[in-house]
């Protein structure tokens, strides 16, 4: 297998892992004022992701670093052309991270409500805009002969991309509801299960529309199979949540996100950023790649360090695997 193929696959895997892991973080943040009826319940909700949310963000940092080193032209065109969208995502992540740290620094209810609103903002905005970004990558953007983006930010807010943003927002929120059903106990867990049913049903239609649009415009035989399996996994998760099997429902939405993300990257292949103005200006895994020597060094580094990172993150999830209850939260 060529090194360019290996690193395209690596970038796809890193983004997919990020969407699966950070997806439920976004979902929990989005649902904070919906499921948390008082401060103790909201603190319990935050505690479910408290030990892991910052570790989940490492996946996108690694994905960006891998893109920068393996496909510098892709990185340059994407981060310059999508600058405002990516800046808004970064702003949301910063605001959310600060809110997690500062929410408990004040004693008044108003102080905590302000930071709760920041957590919601920092969850909803990235969850929506990541769908917009990935949809535009698959759809393609206008590029000139120097691979520079020649469109405007308004061109990125097209119908396909906005539907993609709505899909990721709803899917991540559903993922978060199933996670809370799994990670909380008592009445809070039951409310998360009930809300997950409603969210899962609401997610099905836009997700199906987005995936069908993707298949019709950019798909192939492999993407069709992946999309069909993703839809099946989403419906399976809904059925599992209905029967009260929160862990399996959460696993089903993780599979849904993984299959959908894989389908999008398969639809993109062998391009990394198609040009809608002239197909000759498209960035591909070949013309966007770094030198073979650079890719070779990166491959050996990944072989050595990636297992260590995965083992550490897996261990952290194992240590903090227990459910969170409101009874364990001091009044």
TrEMBL record:
Keywords for this protein: Cell membrane, Electron transport, Heme, Iron, Membrane, Metal-binding, Transmembrane, Transmembrane helix, Transport
Pfam families assigned to the protein according to its UniProt record, in alphabetical order? Cyt_bd_oxida_II
- Origin, by domain of life? Bacteria
Gene Ontology BP, a term: aerobic electron transport chain
Task: Name the residues that span the membrane.
Answer: 6-35, 81-99, 119-139, 159-182, 194-216, 222-240, 247-270, 297-320
Q: Per its record, what are the GO molecular function terms?
A: electron transfer activity; metal ion binding; oxidoreductase activity, acting on diphenols and related substances as donors, oxygen as acceptor
The record describes its membrane topology as: Multi-pass membrane protein
Q: Which family does it belong to?
A: Belongs to the cytochrome ubiquinol oxidase subunit 2 family.
Q: What is this protein called?
A: Cytochrome d ubiquinol oxidase subunit II
Organism of origin is Glycomyces luteolus
Give the taxonomic lineage as stored in the record. Bacteria, Bacillati, Actinomycetota, Actinomycetes, Glycomycetales
């Amino acid at each position: 297998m060529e090194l360019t193929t290996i690193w395209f696959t690596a970038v796809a895997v890193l983004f997919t892992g990020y969407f699966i892991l950070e997806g439920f973080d976004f979902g929990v943040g989005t649902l904070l004022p919906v499921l948390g009826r008082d401060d103790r319940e909201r603190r319990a909700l935050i505690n479910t992701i408290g030990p892991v949310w910052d570790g989940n963000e490492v996946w996108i940092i690694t994905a960006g670093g891998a893109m920068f080193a393996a496909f510098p032209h892709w990185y340059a065109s994407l981060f310059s052309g999508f600058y405002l969208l990516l800046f808004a995502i970064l702003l949301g992540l910063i605001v959310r991270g600060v809110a997690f740290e500062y929410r408990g620094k004040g004693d008044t209810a108003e102080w905590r409500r302000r930071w709760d609103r920041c957590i919601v903002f920092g969850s909803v905005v990235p969850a929506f805009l990541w769908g917009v970004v990935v949809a535009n990558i698959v759809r393609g953007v206008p590029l000139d002969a120097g691979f520079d983006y020649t469109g405007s930010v308004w061109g990125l807010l097209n119908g396909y991309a906005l539907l993609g943003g709505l899909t990721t927002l709803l899917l991540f929120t559903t993922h978060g509801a199933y996670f809370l059903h799994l990670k909380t106990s008592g009445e809070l867990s039951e409310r998360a299960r009930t809300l997950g049913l409603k969210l899962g049903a609401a997610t099905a239609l836009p997700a199906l529309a987005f995936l069908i649009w993707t298949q019709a415009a950019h798909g192939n035989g492999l993407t069709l199979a992946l999309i069909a399996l993703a839809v099946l996994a989403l419906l399976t998760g809904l059925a599992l949540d209905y029967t009260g099997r929160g862990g399996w429902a959460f696993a089903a939405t993780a599979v849904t996100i993984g299959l959908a993300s894989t389908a999008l990257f398969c639809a993109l292949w062998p391009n990394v950023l198609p040009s809608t103005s002239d197909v000759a200006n498209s960035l591909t895994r070949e013309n966007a790649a770094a030198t073979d020597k650079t890719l070779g060094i990166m491959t050996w580094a990944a072989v050595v360090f990636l297992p260590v990172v995965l083992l550490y993150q897996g261990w952290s999830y194992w240590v903090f695997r227990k459910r969170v209850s409101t009874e364990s939260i001091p009044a």
